[in-house]
């Protein structure tokens, strides 16, 4: 039986930032409850105390397609790990579906991003 990574209580992916942003990070945290997947985009508060973010979640299930876009200013209180939560969304991913999650951060000339794909 294959292991489904969404069955873990929390899966945090810290992915490499885009070129030119070697010290900045973006994080996508995933958790699953009762078949629904919660997606939270976060930024390192030390590197991203301001600027803008955008999160895109594109879900494909059979012939159905949907895309959710969220954006705003980076700010707020960091959590105990030093991350500022940016955006949160919940998706239902039935068997055979995929979701592409892309997060971008920008402030002046600095840019960073992270992305992941969920497959059921």
From TrEMBL:
The keyword Oxidoreductase does not apply. Gene3D superfamilies: 2.60.40.2420. It comes from Histidinibacterium aquaticum. Residues 1-21 form the signal peptide. Residues 61-86 are annotated as: Disordered. Residues 61-72 have a biased composition (Polar residues). Keywords: Signal. It comes from the Bacteria. This is Uncharacterized protein.
């Amino acid at each position: 039986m294959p292991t489904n990574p969404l069955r873990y209580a929390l899966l945090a992916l810290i992915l490499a930032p885009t070129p030119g942003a070697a010290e900045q990070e973006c994080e996508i945290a995933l958790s699953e409850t009762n078949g629904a997947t919660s997606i939270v985009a976060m930024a390192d508060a030390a590197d991203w105390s301001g600027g803008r973010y955008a999160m895109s979640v594109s879900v494909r299930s059979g012939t159905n397609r949907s895309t959710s876009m969220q954006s705003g200013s980076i700010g707020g209180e960091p959590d105990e790990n030093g991350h500022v939560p940016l955006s949160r969304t919940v998706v239902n991913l039935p068997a055979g579906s995929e979701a592409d999650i892309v997060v971008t951060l920008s402030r002046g000339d600095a840019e960073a991003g992270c992305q992941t794909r969920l497959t059921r």
